[in-house]
Amino acid sequence: AAPAPVPMSALARPAPVAAPPAAAPRAAAPPPAALSPTDILAPTPVAPPSLGEAVAVVGDVKADAGAVLASLAIVSETLGANADAVAPELPALCVAACARLRVVFDKADDGAVCKTLLRLMLDVFCSPPLMATLNADGVRLLVTELLERLVDRRLNDGSFDGAASEGLMKSINQLMLKLLQLAPRRIALGALIDLVAEHAPAPASAELSSLLLKCTQKLARAVEADAATLAPMPLLTKLHALDGALRAAADPAPAAVASALELGKMLSEKLVKLFAADVTKALVQTEPLEPHFHAHLEGLLSQLGLGQPAAKEEEAPPPPPPPM
């Protein structure tokens, strides 16, 4: 027999699904604060350039006058607040200042940048702690740049008007005197000797050579007073090299050669007199000097009546063995 049909009421019904709880109403976001005209127009704060960045702008020949003046102000403010903070940047500052001074002459611009630059350089040159850190490369660069500007034809050919030309010449002379006064004396004297050797034999450098000789003579006259700060043998080595460079000059030699030879002779004699003991010791040291230089120093000692250097002491023979 066929199964009886299942009544509809007997079929299982799925349990009703509970509706999710209603979400709590969200609090309305506060309206944005109204911006004042000052807030809208205010620029985004920018960190000021570092000292190194300012120095780089001073030396950038493509930088505009406004950027250069702002950078010079940063260097000047740092120098006034703490000169020691400028010392690590001094080599780069020397290069940058010389590059900017050349731009001043190239553009014949004696305006604000020129005046601010010269004032900053004088402040640096008048700082004994900073000048004491100058190395030989820095002194050579500064001496060469300042003296080349003093003999620059543009000071006298109308590029600058009379008052500007006179003011520039006066300022650069003042810088040169301060440099010679406060740069480490042994470094300054050595740098000048090297520069005389480089330029005196060259006819095209006659004006520059004349100024170099005057600067070297100025320091040479003070050798006795500066003896405690000098290292005689490096200077005597440079003077010997100077003598060789001058005697190898083309014939006829420029007029500066004779003056430089006389200066070298005078300075060598002064140093040997002041440091006879050091020279004598150098002649008998373990590492021999270059033969021509050795003979040159021996000749100076003999010429000045300071005696011949003592021979090297021979080692004493070992004592005899004790009797058996």
Furnish the topology, listing elements before pairings.
Blueprint: H1 37-41, H2 51-59, H3 65-81, H4 83-86, H5 90-107, H6 112-125, H7 128-131, H8 136-150, H9 162-182, H10 185-199, H11 206-220, H12 232-247, H13 255-274, H14 276-283, H15 291-303
Helix pairs in contact: 2-3, 2-5, 3-6, 5-6, 5-8, 6-9, 8-9, 8-10, 10-11, 10-12, 11-13, 12-13, 14-15
- Beta-strand content: under 5%
Largest sheet: none
Return the structural class.
Answer: mainly alpha
How many distinct helices? Answer: 15
The rounded distance between the terminal residues' Cα atoms is 147 Å
Number of strands: 0
Question: Which features characterize this protein?
Answer:
mainly alpha, elongated, 324 residues
Word description of this protein:
This protein is mostly helical and 324 residues long. It has 15 helices and no strands. It has helices spanning 37-41, 51-59, 65-81, 83-86, 90-107, 112-125, 128-131, 136-150, 162-182, 185-199, 206-220, 232-247, 255-274, 276-283, 291-303. It starts with 36 loop residues before the first helix and ends in a 21-residue tail after the last helix.
Would you kindly provide a brief summary of this structure?
This protein has 324 residues and is an all-alpha fold. The chain has helices spanning 37-41, 51-59, 65-81, 83-86, 90-107, 112-125, 128-131, 136-150, 162-182, 185-199, 206-220, 232-247, 255-274, 276-283, 291-303. It is elongated and about 140 Å long.
